[in-house]
Specification:
This protein has 265 residues and is α/β, with parallel strands linked by helices. It has 11 helices and 9 strands. The protein folds into 2 domains: 60 residues, no CATH class; 184 residues, Indigoidine synthase fold (3-Layer(aba) Sandwich).
Length: 265
């Protein structure tokens, strides 16, 4: 709850207008009140809703926190073109066993928009995720980096084809996407402000979380929330602190891009 409100404050400080999106009592709300943010923040079991879950949540008059893909789908409906998130979903590491691919990827490929993130979540198969994004025609750019950030880590060893140095360059690329009628999103990958831990410390913790999920037979859309929650527990909150700094950094960059887009018009 505190991070959501801080992110809105950061966006305002950079001259843009925040519009946090969620499902509140069966209604898609674009721009939450502080009370509505508190409703989501105070309930531990608020379900995470992707595009396919949105009509079910509305029909049942439920609350729902949205995935990156779900948020992007809602944003398009009301003409919001820039979205800030932490990390996107993608191809899971056990793809050969489960064919587990996040719907975030397909929503990015289904229409325009700019999504600012710190890369795919570090629990994923980064190479396969980037390859699938390329196959589906999503324009992936690195902000002041030529490597795909890995959420908690600034570098992954996975090279990007396009690197930009300013929000203005991103706005120009998006302008060309719209002018050319290319119905795909621009995924801006913004390295985290700092690395909270090193990979040699992270990987054993992730393996422990993955092994635990396998024993409990946790799969599908429940897997990512479980792994992130388990990481928060076994890292004694270190991953939560990293998440917070990432979201605030991405919110600031998204606001700067939104301002540049407005200036171009």
């Amino acid at each position: 709850m505190e991070i959501a409100l801080l992110a809105e404050k950061v966006i305002r400080e950079h001259g843009a207008i925040p519009a946090t999106i969620a499902i509140i009592k069966g209604n898609i709300k674009v721009g939450l009140t502080e009370e509505e943010i508190q409703i989501l923040g105070n309930r531990k079991n608020t379900p995470k809703a992707g595009v396919r879950d949105i009509p079910v949540a509305i029909a049942r008059r439920e609350n729902g926190a949205l995935t990156s893909g779900g948020t992007l789908w809602c944003a398009r409906k009301v003409g919001i073109e820039v979205l800030a998130t932490g990390g996107i979903g993608g191809v899971h590491r056990n793809i050969d066993q489960s064919l587990d691919i996040s719907n975030d990827i397909t929503v990015l490929a289904e229409g325009p928009g700019i999504v600012v993130c710190s890369g795919p979540k570090a629990i994923l198969n980064l190479e396969a995720t980037l390859e699938l994004l390329e196959t589906l025609g999503v324009i992936v750019v690195g902000y002041k980096t030529d490597e795909l950030p890995a959420f908690y880590f600034r570098n992954s060893g996975v090279k990007l084809d396009v690197s930009v140095d300013s929000p203005g360059e991103i706005a120009q690329i998006y302008k060309m996407v719209k002018l050319l009628g290319i119905n795909k999103s621009v995924l801006v990958t913004n390295p985290p402000p700092k690395e909270s831990w090193n990979k040699s410390e992270f990987e054993p913790l992730l393996k422990e979380a993955i092994d635990e999920a396998r024993k409990l037979n946790i799969k599908g859309k429940a897997l990512t929330p479980y792994l992130l929650g388990k990481l928060a527990q076994i890292s004694k909150g270190k991953s939560v602190e990293a998440n917070a700094s990432i979201i605030l950094s991405n919110a600031a960059l998204a606001a700067k891009i939104a301002i540049k887009i407005k200036e171009e018009r």
